[in-house]
Automatic annotation (TrEMBL):
<protein>
    <recommendedName>
        <fullName>N-acetyltransferase domain-containing protein</fullName>
    </recommendedName>
</protein>
<dbReference type="GO" id="GO:0016747">
    <property type="term" value="F:acyltransferase activity, transferring groups other than amino-acyl groups"/>
</dbReference>
<dbReference type="Pfam" id="PF00583">
    <property type="entry name" value="Acetyltransf_1"/>
</dbReference>
<dbReference type="InterPro" id="IPR016181">
    <property type="entry name" value="Acyl_CoA_acyltransferase"/>
</dbReference>
<feature type="domain" description="N-acetyltransferase">
    <location>
        <begin position="1"/>
        <end position="136"/>
    </location>
</feature>
<dbReference type="InterPro" id="IPR000182">
    <property type="entry name" value="GNAT_dom"/>
</dbReference>
Length: 136
């Protein structure tokens, strides 16, 4: 497995197989767009396919937020997400706040990386689960 910190050499066709269980998932092309807009990311690549990703959005000064972390089902349970988190957090070193929101069962996973439990407020517009259309 190859860990990468950029989309260089990656195309949308290599980004399939994610968002399992989402009723209205983003397409691989949309996943490419959102990763392209993220200042920090980590990709796990195996045989030319992206098998896991995580990214952060950030103001580059104080704060970063990790919206999504996912490993393709066939690759779970082998430490891929842990490797992705370590790689991403290296890039976020020096920032004051690094936040994410997660389900209760993943609290122990994130605690391993120095994050601690806090309250999150969230809003979801399910009509936009596949992403906001490109403007223009
Ligand atoms: C959560 C997820 C990214 C973990 O990926 P992974 O590559 O299997 O994780 P790792 O192999 O690095 O696992 C690290 C540890 O976390 C634990 N863990 C992983 N997923 C877990 C889950 N859903 N619930 C509880 N513990 C979990 C593993 O048991 C493992 O513990 P161990 O080292 O004692 O065996 C993956 O299951 C996934 O993509 N799930 C769907 C998307 C999702 O829920 N993303 C998180 C958004 S907050």
């Amino acid at each position: 497995m190859d860990l990468r910190a950029s989309l260089d050499g990656i195309s949308p066709a290599q980004l399939g197989g994610f968002f399992g269980g989402w009723p209205n998932p983003p397409t691989p092309a949309t996943l490419y767009r959102l990763l392209a807009g993220a200042p920090y990311l980590a990709l796990a690549v195996e045989d030319g396919e992206v098998i896991g990703f995580v990214y952060a959005i950030s103001d580059g000064v104080l704060c970063a937020y990790i919206p999504l972390l996912e490993v393709r089902p066939a690759w779970r349970g082998r430490g891929v997400a842990s490797a992705l988190m370590r790689s991403l957090l290296e890039g976020l070193d020096g920032l004051y706040m690094v936040d994410t929101a997660c389900d209760e069962d993943l609290v122990p996973f994130y605690e391993r990386f120095g994050l601690r439990r806090g309250a999150a407020m969230v809003r979801r517009d399910y009509a936009r689960q596949a992403g906001r259309p490109e403007s223009g």
